[in-house]
Write a structure and sequence with these properties.
four-stranded mixed sheet; 12 helices; six-stranded mixed sheet; alpha/beta; 10 strands; Lyase 2-enoyl-coa Hydratase, Chain  A, domain 2
Length: 258
Amino acid sequence: MTTSDLTVERPSPGVALIRYSRPKSMNALDVKLRRELAAELTALAADDTVRVAVIAGTDKAFAAGADLSEMAKADSVTVHDWNTGASWKQIGAFPKPLIAAVKGFALGGGCELAMHCDIIIAGQSARFGQPEVKVGIMPGAGGTQRLTRAVGKFRANLYLMTGRLFDARTALEMGLVSDVVADAEVEPTALALAQEIAALPPLALKFIKEAVTLADNAPLDAGLDYERRSFQFLFSTADQKEGMAAFLEKRKPTYKGG
């Protein structure tokens, strides 16, 4: 899929790279782009040749928030009719590993987009934040919930209530990002990681993603029950047989997703 703002590449087997570019607005996420991103992830979810997806912006910005030129003239009925919650739900429902490659600003909706991913690789230039309060609103795509779950109530409130930005090292220290690398290494690192994950058994990865999501949203007993049942189920898959046989035979496994 290619639009004026979004392209999709296949840099290696099993890996899809979604890249968007709106340089005049620092990659601000307007309604159209959010819908296109959601639609593309839905399509990739149904594509058996894709096992991992990477989302990337440009050098100066992952995404510098929502498009305020679009929002400034909107009333509550207009915002309601945009139904952006549906797009965010589609993004959040992507069942395969999703990696954010973040350089530059990841603010507001951009920070929320990164937090919809499973792994965040940040460049040294990355700046995160939820500055919505500074323009008279609040996060509306999960910022209050996902940031709090990632870093805790008191750190989250510091940034949510002040709108302050924080750098990549602070994000790493708080547990918001997975790794920090030089800017030039962000995309290569994310793609190498995607390639590594794409070689692993897809069903096991799917269940891991679902179990980790449950850790944020369900009581401990429910999460443990899901983990145990998923663990047991995987013993009926061909990939489990292949993985254990390959280990015992001292060879590299080949996982086919069954």
